[in-house]
Amino acid sequence: QVQLVESGGGLVQAGDSLRLVCTASGRTFSSYTMGWFRQAPGKEREFVAAISWSGGITYYDNSVKGRFTISRVNAKNTGYLQMDSLKPEDTGVYYCAAGPLGCSGNGCSRLPFEYDYWGQGTQVTVSS
Questions:
Q1: Which one of 4, 28, 38, 115 has the fewest beta carbons within 10 angstroms of its own beta carbon?
Q2: Other C-beta atoms within 10 Å of 17: how many?
Q3: What is the mean pLDDT of each run of 10 residues along the chain (128 residues)?
Q4: Distance between alpha carbon 89 and the CA centroid of its chain, in Å?
């Protein structure tokens, strides 16, 4: 079992930045691919970014590429999502997830069902 807890969400204005933190406990977090997903009201959960277990491969949805940066520090059992140049359409509940599938040169899994462990989510609201 891996327990994940997100923090760092909040209410910001368009153009601002936020850094989300995912703190893991339980089984070895460092052996899992870590992903960030988000869900807006009335919409399905969607992929945002993912990072391989070593941190050597990162993968982003086109909607956030160039604005968001995913990273991890395995020694601290912690993952991060730095979000810059935020837009109102980035509003939603952001979830951290961990899954066993590795990443490759083609990227990491974008599918929620391929991630086994999830946090409770943190709200991000971007006003225009």
A1: 28
A2: 12
A3: 95 98 88 96 96 95 98 96 98 96 90 96 97
A4: 16
